DNA sequence: CAGATTTTGAGGTACGTAAATCATTTTCTT
DNA sequence: AAGAAAATGATTTACGTACCTCAAAATCTG
């Protein structure tokens, strides 16, 4: 039988009240008594029944997601997953609030985070823009006991409780590997389309891509990245330009959003050999393009997994429970038409 | 505030006792009363607090995993993950029993399943051999209210509650795609190493592989599969034979276990172009081979995910709670050296 | 309509923990 | 050693649900 607080009290030779004081670190316990209880905990293998504790406390976990607004399809999907999670709130004892802030707007983000100070939630998951003020604000929240999870993009060197996202340098390298291998020694030019080089994620992907491509096949020429700000129309235009102008365009990599534009441009090509096309994020559009052979590889991060992982981690951190690291790690999914979910 | 049984009783205009009778379908309730309560449940959105209910019932979930013994590295890892899950039993209110049966031994499996009849657990997760007797035994368990999860390999057309594993046809197709794409139009022979063609999983992988390879590049010649029964030594020998004998061996696919043999054989090759090597299951060995460039791609199913998904599903089924399908779906992971976990 | 039967209600205890109050004991201070 | 302060104990109620008993009411049977 699982030991209870009563067993613990008996085993430690103290009263239930003292056990309670120790477990919930209330004041007024001598250090020696406290360690006596802690020893007993270890000895009998006591594990607090979190469900019973939550019942007694009437506890729910207030969790706040701070995410960018805008119609970038990945962010749309992320917000959708947060809404889905709200659906499960009753059963999971969570109360999820989603705050939308304009994308790439550090001031708005800071304001949103500051607003949380009044009534701090148990955890905050944030798609962070990396500025000093943002870091300061998050640190302040963390100092007041809020579990901090960075979502999608991490803050380098920042002591958050968890990062629910992928390593974009590795993602870029993966794209580079696949591009080089699919081209198997061929020579030619590679077009790259990006959202904005001011965003860390995109920088990383590009760096990784270039690095790896150069390692495997230095004869491939990587054209300068076209910044299209994740706008399908601009991506369309850029892709057309690349396809028309660049003699020997053998590959094209869209490391940002706006894949509809890329797909449109590729679909309009005259029949004949197509460049190897690699892009990010699995959506209805990219799925169809993959199935139709217009796009060769989609790299993906599972937004649903990210949201669920963030929730689990915030709950766990906020009651000092261990996390299953392997479960919470977000994969860089590689999708071909053959292994689509 | 979340409605409780008391709110429900009041809202339905019945007593707490009647609500209890309805919720736990105890006898002695008029049909009209029962439906009155059910309407109230829908009206006020009552959701039973499973945690409180489990506390009251003193409920734990007895779960049994029936898995093959043997030192196939995937099965070793699967068993390890089950042991890991045992570690979390206290916190998750599970009591996990692992039963090992000799691999591919239908009789032993049937016996193990029959033994569960006396004291049926809440759920059974089983790596099933597909025979009539096995199906009958599982059906009997299911009929007595046990949640049935097939693990790793599914029983086609069998009405299990869940399958925690991957689609091996798709996995084979994925391998075929990658092989063909990495060879980019080249011509030559492809060696295939399998465990046993009597196992459904391996059949499927081979079928998918051949299919897809033929679709993309029909000029590639796929050699007959070498059955090595997942034994590293036999795999080693077979790989050496392939590498020595086959003129123009451009690719090698091990769809079974025993990768150590494959890696050994490949590592001994004289320098020069290596065949594209694709294999299954990420282990310490295959990871090192991937990093060292000896193997090009590892396809993987996450044993930890499979075990955790099986547990979540068995718990959910056994108390009629919904399952998050996307979360429980097991991916066909594609690992290059760039996106290793 | 009496008696039997079915259905419903009222109320209590339990699960493991939290949180509170008040009483008692121990330890410190001077 | 007396008084103050700190530490500990004893006990109770509550959380939401399950499950039990006994009584009362409603419905059926002939």
Automatic annotation (TrEMBL), chains A, B:
Domain HTH lacI-type: 3-57
The keyword Zinc appears for this protein: no
Molecular functions (GO terms): DNA binding
Lineage top rank: taxon: Bacteria
Transmembrane spans: none
Record-linked PROSITE patterns: HTH_LACI_1 (PS00356), HTH_LACI_2 (PS50932)
Protein name: LacI family DNA-binding transcriptional regulator
Native source organism of the sequence: Rhizobium alvei
């Amino acid at each position: 039988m699982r030991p209870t607080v009563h067993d613990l009290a008996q085993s430690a030779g103290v009263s239930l009240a003292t056990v309670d004081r120790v477990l919930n670190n209330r004041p007024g316990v001598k250090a020696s008594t406290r360690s006596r209880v802690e020893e007993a905990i270890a000895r009998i293998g006591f594990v607090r029944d979190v469900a019973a504790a939550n019942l007694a406390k009437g506890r729910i976990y207030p969790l706040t997601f701070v995410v960018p607004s805008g119609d970038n399809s990945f962010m749309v999907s992320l917000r959708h997953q947060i809404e889905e999670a709200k659906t499960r709130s009753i059963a999971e004892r969570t109360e999820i609030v989603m705050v939308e802030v304009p994308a790439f707007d550090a001031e708005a983000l800071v304001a949103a985070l500051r607003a949380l100070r009044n009534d701090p939630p148990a955890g905050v998951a944030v798609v962070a823009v990396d500025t000093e003020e943002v870091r300061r604000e998050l640190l302040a929240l963390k100092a007041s006991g809020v579990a901090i999870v960075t979502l999608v993009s991490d803050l380098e060197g920042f002591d958050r409780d968890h990062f629910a996202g992928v390593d974009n340098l590795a993602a870029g390298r993966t794209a580079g590997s696949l591009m080089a291998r699919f081209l198997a020694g061929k020579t030619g030019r590679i077009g790259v389309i990006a959202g904005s080089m001011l965003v860390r994620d995109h920088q990383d992907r590009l760096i990784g891509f270039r690095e790896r491509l150069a390692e495997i096949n230095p004869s491939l020429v990587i054209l300068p990245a076209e910044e299209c700000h994740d706008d399908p129309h601009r991506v369309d235009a850029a892709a057309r330009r690349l396809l028309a102008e660049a003699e020997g365009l053998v590959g094209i990599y869209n490391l940002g959003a706006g894949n509809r534009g890329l797909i449109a441009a590729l679909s309009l090509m005259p029949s004949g050999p197509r460049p190897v096309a690699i892009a990010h994020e699995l959506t209805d559009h990219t799925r169809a393009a993959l199935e139709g052979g217009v796009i060769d590889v989609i790299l993906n991060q599972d937004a649903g997994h990210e949201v669920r992982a963030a929730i689990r981690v915030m709950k766990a951190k906020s009651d000092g429970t261990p996390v299953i690291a392997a479960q919470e790690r977000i994969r860089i999914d590689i999708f071909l038409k053959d292994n689509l979910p």
